[in-house]
Design brief:
By secondary structure, this protein is mainly β. The protein has 1 helix and 10 strands, in the order βββαβββββββ. The protein binds zinc ion (ZN).
């Protein structure tokens, strides 16, 4: 399948020739800050299926510890993807266009969610990370 995504202003666009996998939502304070939201919504992508179509020069990278980073549009601020040691690791689901035929399979770090967030019933959730 082909999946397209773009930032809020539309200058940064990408294409994935393949499927997203391992979609999850992280509710800890770090995910909330990184995604400016109640939680992250993120799925992994195989690096060889991912390609920037436009605006790659507008990307800014925030490098965090342990090799993980985030890339966002310097024009509009949308966070588009996560990186690991410089390679694409996954995409933020909010920037994916259309139906990527994926569902968030688990909600993690729900034990440290924001006090104001109401979790939906019947979702798979873990107080901390998923069991190994
Ligand atoms: Zn943008």
């Amino acid at each position: 399948m082909v999946i397209n995504g773009e930032c809020f202003c539309g200058k940064v666009t990408y294409r994935i020739d393949g499927k997203l996998r391992n979609a999850r939502s992280g509710h800890c304070s770090r995910c909330r800050k990184a995604f400016s939201s109640q939680a992250s919504a993120y799925a992994e992508v195989a690096p060889d299926t991912f390609k920037w179509l436009s605006g790659k020069d507008l990307l800014t990278t925030y490098q965090s510890k342990h090799g993980f980073g985030l890339q966002f549009c310097s024009q509009c601020g949308s966070t588009l993807c996560g990186t690991y040691r410089g390679d694409i690791h996954g995409v933020t689901l909010g920037c994916v266009n259309g139906d990527a035929e994926i569902e968030i399979g688990m909600h993690i770090f729900v034990g440290s969610k924001a006090t104001w967030e109401m979790m939906p019933e019947h979702v798979v959730q873990f107080k901390e990370g998923p069991p190994v």
